Amino acid sequence: MTANDSATYEWTVSGMDCASCAGKVRGAVERLPGVSDVDVALMTERLRLTLDEGQTPRNQIEAIVKRLGYGIAAKGSSPDRKGFVLPDDEQASRADGSRDAAGLEPNAGSTGPESGPGPGSRWYQTAKGRLVIGTGLLLAAAWAVKLLASQDVATWAFILATLIGVAPIARRAVASARAGMPFTIEMLMTIAASGALVIDAAEEAALVVFLFAVGEVLEGVAANKARDGIRALARLVPKTAILEIGGRTRVIPADQLQVDQIVLVRPGDRVPADGEVIEGTSGVDESAVTGESVPKLKEPGASVFAGSINSEAALRVRVTKSAEDNTIARIIRLVEEAESARAPTERFIDRFSRIYMPAVVGVAVLVAIVPPLAFGQGWDTWIYRALALLLIGCPCALVISVPASIASALSSGARRGLLMKGGAVIEAAAATTHVAFDKTGTLTHGRPRVTDVVPISGSETEVLALAAAVEAGSSHPLAEAILSRAEAAGAPFLAATAAKALPGKGAEAVVEGETAWVGSPRFAGERGVLDDHALRAVVGMEDEGKTVVAVFRRSQLVGLVALRDEPREDAARAVQQLKALGIASVMLTGDNRRTAAAISAGLGIEHRAELMPEDKVAAVREMMATGHVMMVGDGINDAPALATAHIGVAMGSGTDVALETADAAILRNRVTDVAGKIRLARAAMANIRQNVAIALGLKAVFLVTTILGITGLWIAILADTGATVLVTLNALRLLAFDPEREA
Length: 743
Description:
Layout: E1 6-14, H1 19-30, E2 35-41, E3 46-52, H2 58-67, E4 71-74, H3 89-92, H4 127-148, H5 151-178, H6 185-198, H7 202-234, E5 240-245, E6 248-253, E7 262-265, E8 275-279, E9 282-285, H8 287-290, E10 296-298, E11 303-304, E12 309-310, E13 315-319, H9 327-340, H10 344-375, H11 379-392, H12 396-415, E14 418-420, H13 423-430, E15 434-438, H14 439-443, E16 449-455, H15 460-471, H16 477-488, E17 496-502, E18 506-511, E19 514-519, H17 521-526, H18 532-543, E20 547-553, E21 557-564, H19 571-580, E22 584-588, H20 593-603, E23 606-608, H21 613-624, E24 629-633, H22 639-644, E25 647-651, H23 656-661, E26 664-666, H24 672-707, H25 713-732
Parallel strand pairs: 15-22, 15-24, 22-23, 24-25, 25-26
Antiparallel strand pairs: 1-3, 1-4, 2-3, 5-6, 5-7, 7-13, 8-11, 8-13, 9-10, 9-12, 14-26, 16-21, 17-18, 18-19, 19-20, 20-21
């Protein structure tokens, strides 16, 4: 298969209730010729793969998934399109008005017989729910026959109830076996029920089938509950927007908004897209997006998130991002991608379960034949115990123990503005021993203001005009502060060309035909333009905790500009919280040593100053030699260090480069959320350990009691189903976990 022959396709698969369901779908399709890069996401009900249709057509993929008992429908966007897409009007008009995390209705178009409970359907409306009701009625009818008729007639009633109830389960078992997966819970259930009929335990067989059906419905309800958090995020974005064109307004679908269009957001309305306020002043509630409970005042120039609520007055907003790229979309995309980034613990358990299940089947065979053959024991007794052992041996609870906890932690974090890209990130965050902070925009507000302008070979206005020309178009906080001061001072506009950033040094541009720079004093010293008088001025301002930049041409220092960026209100508290968690903190900055010392002294944190981007990487690697390092930053120059650390965390106000490079993000720009993220990760890992203990502990107990003949078939299926439900419910506790609460 060549790249030209293959393409990426995506479907929505309904009815997947646990990790083993996702494993069946993955195992069935990845064996097909021409199929590669198979990714099955349980929580977002997504199947994505690369396919050469010359070897396997798309309809064959869909047919195999349906045979396994799941509903499948093509995603409502082009195969190569990624991210968040709002449903169109026809999709949005469903009676339940629901959509899944990708903006698609989980059961729309699903034709499989075992579609799970969707967000708008009750359990009894699903195929699995109907199976529970049907098998329950058959079992009740059989018991009624037993009370009113002879035992022989009652036995046939139980046999009939068993056969009718196990038929759909057997079909799925055969489909899985044909797809190369013989060791599934459906196969074990079919063997156990059939074996029970053979050894004349029809009543118990019928009860086991009913309990199995109940367990599947409970798993579906629990899985659907875990998906609710992501569905709620998708529903935050309104379906429509009020578009302004030529002074007139009209209502259009929100997903059709384009960048630079103007929308009107009335009081009480949700913002339909990420944008910038161009007119109006109002408080905006961003709690649904960032978890910040206090509404933020939005004035012209302020950014707003899609899904936030305008509280007070009408706002005119210029759209800055399309529907596929807005903040909600990025959160959902992170959660979707996170499912593919499985934790090392999850991968280990997945490998273990592949060995565990055949091993249990082997032990069950030995239990069935060794006592009768070697010791003359009764065949019925030991076959019965072997069948019960098969049911206990199902690894469903063990397999779901990790992804259920991970999904709950991801959802809980997303609701509070704490984003993590998967289980591997959660595991790494929980192991953190050192946190390295960038200074500007991370520990500080990142919005410095100019405090001093010191002319050297020109006037103050000339210094500001030249500095503003070099920094024009830059989004760096220092550049924005200089541009703001130049505008306020009425400095003349100077045209600049060939402008570029010099990471860790400053910026340069050609102004009025001659190259000019705005850079650090160290850079100016390297260029030979910083004399003793200027150096003394720099030292004096830096001792006051100010950041100083030099404005110079090729052979002449024009002047100095001093700026100050105050620490965030919660920065010192965040350092204290990390210390309470046993985590060491250090500030890494490209700023001068004096300014760094002044900031770090007030925060109670160690510091390393005058670092180039490569120096930050070296510092992170040095810490990684003795522990697990989390790097927190927000700028382009932080991206290498973010990528190098065990886990990189980007502040929500940071650049797109930092956000894409990082493993996690903090939307609320609160430094204390770093400690909150670690608390959540540690709680998730503790929850995983509890789940593994529950799954293995229950199975170990009932394994012994079954072999000893203390427990039978119906207890065995209760143990399996009960363990799965207990593990899922325990994982769901993470949805209520409060990362801000200090231990």
